[in-house]
Amino acid sequence: MFTDLFHSSPIPLSAEGRCAGSGVIVLTSSMRVLHVNQQAVEVAKYLPQEESEVANQNPWRGLFPRTVAEFGAELVRALKKCMEGKDKKQFEVTRLAGDGRRSVRLRGFVLPDARGIEQSRLVITLEEIGSRL
Protein backbone atom coordinates (compact mmCIF):
# COMPACT_ATOMS: atom_id res chain seq x y z
CA MET A 1 0.00 0.00 0.00
CA PHE A 2 1.29 3.47 -0.91
CA THR A 3 0.62 6.41 1.36
CA ASP A 4 -1.40 9.19 -0.25
CA LEU A 5 0.95 12.16 -0.04
CA PHE A 6 -1.77 14.74 -0.61
CA HIS A 7 -4.12 13.69 2.18
CA SER A 8 -1.71 12.95 5.00
CA SER A 9 -1.75 14.57 8.40
CA PRO A 10 -0.23 18.05 8.85
CA ILE A 11 3.55 18.22 8.98
CA PRO A 12 5.03 19.59 12.22
CA LEU A 13 7.36 22.54 11.62
CA SER A 14 10.51 23.52 13.48
CA ALA A 15 11.03 26.99 14.94
CA GLU A 16 12.65 28.00 11.63
CA GLY A 17 9.50 26.96 9.76
CA ARG A 18 11.10 23.83 8.29
CA CYS A 19 9.77 20.32 8.32
CA ALA A 20 10.49 18.72 11.71
CA GLY A 21 11.29 15.05 12.15
CA SER A 22 12.64 12.39 9.87
CA GLY A 23 11.30 11.27 6.56
CA VAL A 24 10.56 7.55 6.35
CA ILE A 25 10.47 5.21 3.36
CA VAL A 26 9.67 1.49 3.75
CA LEU A 27 10.67 -0.81 0.87
CA THR A 28 10.45 -4.44 -0.12
CA SER A 29 13.56 -6.31 -1.20
CA SER A 30 12.51 -5.62 -4.81
CA MET A 31 12.54 -1.84 -4.09
CA ARG A 32 8.76 -1.51 -4.16
CA VAL A 33 7.68 1.38 -1.96
CA LEU A 34 5.31 0.23 0.81
CA HIS A 35 5.16 3.51 2.70
CA VAL A 36 6.49 7.04 2.40
CA ASN A 37 5.66 10.01 4.59
CA GLN A 38 5.48 13.66 3.57
CA GLN A 39 8.64 14.51 5.54
CA ALA A 40 10.63 12.15 3.26
CA VAL A 41 9.36 14.00 0.20
CA GLU A 42 10.19 17.39 1.74
CA VAL A 43 13.69 16.46 2.96
CA ALA A 44 14.52 14.79 -0.37
CA LYS A 45 14.20 18.21 -2.01
CA TYR A 46 17.55 19.09 -0.40
CA LEU A 47 19.32 16.31 -2.32
CA PRO A 48 20.90 16.92 -5.73
CA GLN A 49 18.39 16.55 -8.55
CA GLU A 50 19.51 14.33 -11.41
CA GLU A 51 20.48 15.57 -14.81
CA SER A 52 18.25 14.55 -17.71
CA GLU A 53 20.67 11.89 -19.03
CA VAL A 54 20.63 9.93 -15.76
CA ALA A 55 17.01 10.56 -14.79
CA ASN A 56 15.77 7.45 -16.60
CA GLN A 57 18.00 5.26 -14.39
CA ASN A 58 16.00 6.26 -11.30
CA PRO A 59 13.09 3.86 -10.58
CA TRP A 60 11.46 6.53 -8.39
CA ARG A 61 11.85 9.42 -10.84
CA GLY A 62 9.47 12.19 -9.91
CA LEU A 63 9.19 11.10 -6.28
CA PHE A 64 12.79 10.91 -5.06
CA PRO A 65 16.17 11.96 -6.46
CA ARG A 66 18.63 9.40 -7.78
CA THR A 67 20.67 9.63 -4.53
CA VAL A 68 17.83 7.93 -2.64
CA ALA A 69 17.35 5.27 -5.33
CA GLU A 70 21.07 4.44 -5.30
CA PHE A 71 21.05 4.21 -1.52
CA GLY A 72 18.06 1.85 -1.69
CA ALA A 73 19.89 -0.31 -4.25
CA GLU A 74 22.91 -0.42 -1.92
CA LEU A 75 20.65 -1.66 0.89
CA VAL A 76 19.20 -4.38 -1.36
CA ARG A 77 22.71 -5.60 -2.22
CA ALA A 78 23.59 -5.66 1.50
CA LEU A 79 20.37 -7.58 2.26
CA LYS A 80 21.12 -10.19 -0.40
CA LYS A 81 24.61 -10.67 1.00
CA CYS A 82 23.18 -10.97 4.52
CA MET A 83 20.60 -13.55 3.41
CA GLU A 84 23.36 -15.73 1.93
CA GLY A 85 24.99 -16.07 5.34
CA LYS A 86 23.93 -18.03 8.38
CA ASP A 87 23.55 -15.00 10.66
CA LYS A 88 20.61 -12.88 9.50
CA LYS A 89 20.91 -9.89 11.82
CA GLN A 90 19.43 -6.45 11.35
CA PHE A 91 21.92 -3.71 10.57
CA GLU A 92 22.16 -0.05 9.67
CA VAL A 93 23.95 1.89 6.92
CA THR A 94 24.40 5.68 7.05
CA ARG A 95 25.31 8.18 4.31
CA LEU A 96 25.50 11.95 4.06
CA ALA A 97 24.34 13.81 0.98
CA GLY A 98 23.21 17.30 0.11
CA ASP A 99 22.66 19.94 -2.50
CA GLY A 100 25.57 22.18 -1.46
CA ARG A 101 23.37 24.31 0.81
CA ARG A 102 21.96 21.70 3.19
CA SER A 103 23.06 18.27 4.34
CA VAL A 104 20.82 15.22 4.60
CA ARG A 105 21.56 12.08 6.61
CA LEU A 106 20.25 8.95 4.92
CA ARG A 107 19.96 6.05 7.32
CA GLY A 108 19.09 2.62 6.00
CA PHE A 109 17.87 -0.20 8.19
CA VAL A 110 18.07 -3.68 6.73
CA LEU A 111 15.52 -6.01 8.33
CA PRO A 112 16.12 -9.57 7.11
CA ASP A 113 13.35 -12.09 7.64
CA ALA A 114 14.14 -15.76 8.36
CA ARG A 115 11.26 -16.76 6.03
CA GLY A 116 13.15 -15.35 3.05
CA ILE A 117 14.27 -12.28 1.18
CA GLU A 118 10.76 -11.57 -0.13
CA GLN A 119 9.50 -10.96 3.42
CA SER A 120 12.51 -8.83 4.38
CA ARG A 121 12.12 -5.06 4.57
CA LEU A 122 14.27 -1.99 4.14
CA VAL A 123 13.63 1.28 5.96
CA ILE A 124 15.25 4.54 4.88
CA THR A 125 15.10 7.66 7.00
CA LEU A 126 16.01 11.09 5.66
CA GLU A 127 16.92 13.82 8.11
CA GLU A 128 18.05 17.36 7.40
CA ILE A 129 21.09 17.89 9.61
CA GLY A 130 21.99 21.48 8.94
CA SER A 131 22.55 24.33 6.58
CA ARG A 132 25.87 25.25 5.04
CA LEU A 133 26.63 28.94 4.83
Write the layout of secondary structure elements.
Blueprint: E1 23-28, E2 33-36, H1 38-44, H2 52-55, H3 66-84, E3 91-98, E4 102-111, E5 121-131
Antiparallel strand pairs: 1-2, 1-5, 3-4, 4-5
**Model regions low in confidence, pLDDT < 50 over at least 5 residues:** 1-17
How confident overall, as mean pLDDT?
77
> Over the alpha carbons, how many angstroms does the gyration radius reach?
15 Å
Q: What fraction strand?
A: 25-35%
- The order of strands across the largest sheet is 2-1-5-4-3
- What is the first-to-last residue Cα distance? 40 Å
Please state the overall shape, judged from the principal axes of the Cα atoms.
elongated
Residues in helix, %: 10-25%
Structural class: alpha+beta
Largest sheet: 5 strands, antiparallel
Written as H for each helix and E for each strand, in order along the chain, the element string is EEHHHEEE
Tell how many strands the DSSP assignment holds. Answer: 5
Question: What's the total helix number?
Answer: 3
Features:
disordered N terminus, five-stranded antiparallel beta sheet, 133 residues, 3 helices, 5 strands
